[in-house]
Amino acid sequence: MTDRGWVQTKFWRKRLRKARNAIAIRLFNTRTGRRLLIENIGPRVVSMTVDAGDHLMTFSPSDYIGRKVFRKGHFERDHVDRLIAVLRERGLMRSQGYLLEIGGNIGTQTVYFALSGAYARIVSVEPDPRNFPLLQTNIRQNGLEGIVALVNCAAGDTAGEIDFFMNASNHGKSSAFRKSAGDKKTSVPVKPVTQILEELSIDPADIGLVWMDIEGYEPVACRSMVPLLSKRVPLYMEFTPLFYGPEQTRQFIKALAGFYENCLVFFEEEEQEMKVVDLPGSVAQYDVLFLP
């Protein structure tokens, strides 16, 4: 090849690379493109960080929640906004109180609550040994250390250790209650909610909201926070009869009805206020706010 031919080849290769890169940038700036990218990242990439506008979020690209954050820019932030709006409308917001978050995962909801300014302080409890370092990172890189206290344990009946089953593809589905095919068993520390608050020198009377999503372990955690339930602190949880089974669902509803009379259920299409005793046991899963 002549010098002139080599220069021309180099020129066109450069033009082609620029055109290819421009197309790729446009593609990967769409939700479809981001999905293609995140679903085809190899296992050597153990974490990624995205700029979500008003915060940074670090996650595992192999995890369902992380992939959702990458594609959409958030993970169910609308649920946090909806809950805050409901609490404000009903005069239940205690901006100088604590939010107790049981099941912090990697800190998506933790960060959303902190950025909202809805609560002065947040306690986030998370047992999963894969999630907790990411939770720490997300609190630190968003400058929220002065607002959020992190606790690396499960919430349960008594202090000690329990078996914990880590879901491979969705870290948010890991559970101390149930095991799915392919889960990896480990052991994690567990403490009653009352002990967690005592060790942080937090008066239960200062808790303005309990937010809980712990994949079927909610009945056990609730037994460890009777002082909060007795004060009828607003309690928001993912309620899952599918996990509890018919008998435990009935017993759990009965126990909660001993503290709360009314609740607000968030179905996919609507919100519905009802008596706690009337909570549906035949619906697989829904979010519910127990009202003081």
Descriptive notes:
With 292 residues, this protein is α/β, with parallel strands linked by helices. The chain has two domains: 3-71, no CATH class; 75-291, Vaccinia Virus protein VP39 (Rossmann fold, 3-Layer(aba) Sandwich). It is 38% helix and 23% strand. The protein is built from eleven helices and 13 strands. It has helices at 3-28, 31-39, 64-72, 77-89, 108-116, 131-141, 193-199, 218-223, 226-230, 241-244, 246-257, and strands spanning 48-51, 56-59, 98-102, 121-125, 148-151, 154-155, 160-166, 184-191, 207-212, 235-239, 262-266, 271-275, 286-291. The strands form three sheets. Strands 5-4-3-9-10-13-11-12 form an eight-stranded mixed beta sheet, covered by helices on one side. A three-stranded mixed beta sheet has the order 6-8-7. A two-stranded antiparallel sheet has the order 1-2. Helix 6 (131-141) links the parallel strand 4 and strand 5 (148-151). The chain is elongated. The N and C termini lie far apart (83 Å). The model has no long low-confidence stretch (mean pLDDT 89).
Set down the secondary structure blueprint:
Elements: H1 3-28, H2 31-39, E1 48-51, E2 56-59, H3 64-72, H4 77-89, E3 98-102, H5 108-116, E4 121-125, H6 131-141, E5 148-151, E6 154-155, E7 160-166, E8 184-191, H7 193-199, E9 207-212, H8 218-223, H9 226-230, E10 235-239, H10 241-244, H11 246-257, E11 262-266, E12 271-275, E13 286-291
List keywords for this structure.
8-stranded mixed beta sheet, 23% strand, Rossmann fold, elongated, 38% helix, 292 residues, alpha/beta
Low-confidence stretches: none
CATH class of the largest domain: Alpha Beta
Going by CATH, the architecture of the largest domain would be 3-Layer(aba) Sandwich
Radius of gyration: 23 Å
Question: Strand pairing plus helix content: what structural class?
Answer: alpha/beta
Mean pLDDT: 89
Largest sheet: 8 strands, mixed
CATH topology of the largest domain: Rossmann fold
What amount of the residues lies in strands?
Answer: 15-25%
Domain unit count: 2
Ends apart, CA distance between termini: 83 Å
* Silhouette: elongated
Number of strands: 13
- Helices and strands, in N-to-C order? HHEEHHEHEHEEEEHEHHEHHEEE
